Amino acid sequence: MEGAAVSYITVLPLVKAVLEDVTDVVNVYDYLRYVKDLTTRDARFLDSDNNRVHTWMITRDEAPSEGALDGDVTRIHQFKLHGYYEVNDYIASEKNFQQLADNVMDAFNDNRGLSQFSNIADSSQLVGFVNEMFCGILCHHCIIGITIEDDVDP
């Protein structure tokens, strides 16, 4: 790839767009969100179709760069997609959310070339799946890792 001014702020909307395109993914935010009260929790994180907490947030936890002698630099973005889905044994919520996590990973695996200058370097990975309290509600929490490489102008 010929170098271009690519950075976190240009890659982030591409990641968000792929995630938002996945069927049944709702309440997508391009950074980690927190709340202090129930009204805000419901406004931000409640899936109004199902009346349960369901949200996705995107963060980047690493961005090492690799350089070559010719001055070309490749930045390697390590994104984490955090999904929360309210536990409900009556509807087998764990099985439903596990499948949704697979659908999210498939969407990124099917969109390897995000743009002219950015591509998904490795297969997406489910790096964690636990139950935990989120905003006062017991939720399934999955973390999906996405590695994106882009060329940066020296």
CATH architecture level-2 label:
2-Layer Sandwich
Please count the helical segments: 3
Spatial extent as radius of gyration: 17 Å
Find the count of extended strands (DSSP E, 2+ residues): 8
Give the tally of structural domains: 1
Percent helix range: 10-25%
Topology as H/E string? HEHEEEEHEEE
The CATH class? Alpha Beta
- Give the CA-CA distance, first to last residue: 13 Å
Shape: elongated
Uncertain spans, ≥5 residues at pLDDT below 50?
Answer: none
The major beta sheet can be summarized as: 8 strands, mixed
Looking at the structure, the CATH topology is: STM4215-like
Structural category is alpha+beta
What would the average pLDDT be, to the nearest integer? 90
Amount of beta strand: 35-45%
Describe what this molecule looks like in 3D.
With 154 residues, the protein is α+β, with helices and mostly antiparallel strands. The chain has a single domain, classed as STM4215-like (2-Layer Sandwich). It has three helices and eight strands, in the order H-E-H-E-E-E-E-H-E-E-E. It has helices spanning 8-20, 38-45, 93-109; strands at residues 28-29, 46-47, 52-62, 65-67, 73-86, 118-120, 125-134, 137-152. Strands 1, 2, 3, 4, 5, 6, 7 and 8 form an eight-stranded mixed beta sheet that branches. Strand 4 (65-67) and strand 5 form a beta hairpin. The radius of gyration is 17 Å and the shape is elongated. 25% of the residues are buried. The mean pLDDT is 90.
Labels describing this entry:
154 residues, alpha+beta, STM4215-like, eight-stranded mixed beta sheet, 3 helices, 40% strand
